[in-house]
Design goal:
The protein is α+β, with helices and mostly antiparallel strands and 143 residues long. The chain is 21% helix and 42% strand. It has a single domain, classed as Roll (Thiol Ester Dehydrase, Chain A).
Amino acid sequence: MKAQILELRIDWSDLDLLGHVNNVAIVKYCQAARLKFITEIGLEPTPGMTFGPIEAAASLQFQRQLHFPGRVSIYTVIQEIKHTSIILEHRIFDETGKQAVYCTEVVVCFDFVAQTKVPIPERILQNITAYTESFTEEIPEEK
């Protein structure tokens, strides 16, 4: 399956007292991948915006520890598109090619003035199609 890919360096500040990457840092890795995705489809958050994306839910499954020094590769695909939301799936791999984290996030289109979710605009759906068709990276087979 082809996916968006984002590669990040593991920083010393990402570690917890036990010497592995803290769960909060992993949430930030997923946030970086989500932000790349929503920016590419035309939903980039900007100050004062009246319509945009919000994260409504997230679920993470930790499969192995990540350590410093190192790099992670985050592969992102769309799991499902609904009327008002997009469910993203992230798979985080360490630099040896082993999957460390599986994450899903629900991103909702939101009207900040009315304080309600709204349908995904047609132009965004078109942008999603164009962007996902440009993916060239395959999600690695788990080692």
